[in-house]
Amino acid sequence: MLEDDTALFMNEMLGVTPMKKNLTSASVHSIKATAPQLQRRRDLEANESLLKLTLDVNQIKALEPEKIVGFKRDGVQSAVFERLSCGGYRIASEVDLHQLKLALAREVLFQSIEQAIALGQRSILVIHGKGAKSKPIAALMKSFTVTWLTQIDSVLAFHSAKPHHGGAGALYVMLTKSAQKRIETQEFNHKGASTRL
């Protein structure tokens, strides 16, 4: 019976040619994402990052309306942070959140930061207002904005603005360089190094 099964199998396999080795890996390497697919992937990643920014008042630290706030990530030099806190960098754009609902403010802030980075802007002004009479807590938008900014990786530092830019109701925000700007800086520095030799 075993011989009959083997003969039957061999008969069915007549004319079949073996597949080439590594066909799967070769196929995978030849598939490239299209521009719309890459854009959808970036949009999904941005949406996931946006949704990580909390809208739960119990997950934020409530701030006083007049409190001066500051934040910097590891690696930001003290002199750079000091200059930022004094309003020493040119403000490339402004984002006004203080009249918006929380969910919309979160989206506007996130998208404005993404757009600023794409445009090569490094310093922006975020206006959140003081919110002395906001509910359910005073300084609601300010407290959320400070929390969100600490959760966005592309924010290097921020500090309450000087009075002529809004004081405790606004923040100077320093952003990372875009990937393109980092490449340009590396190329410039590399060229500069070769000319100095």
TrEMBL record:
It comes from Shewanella piezotolerans (strain WP3 / JCM 13877). NCBIfam families: endonuc_SmrA. PANTHER family: DNA ENDONUCLEASE SMRA-RELATED. GO terms for molecular function: DNA endonuclease activity. Residues 95-176 form the Smr domain. It holds the Pfam family Smr. It comes from the Bacteria. This is Smr protein/MutS2. InterPro entries: Endonuc_SmrA, Smr_dom, Smr_dom_sf.
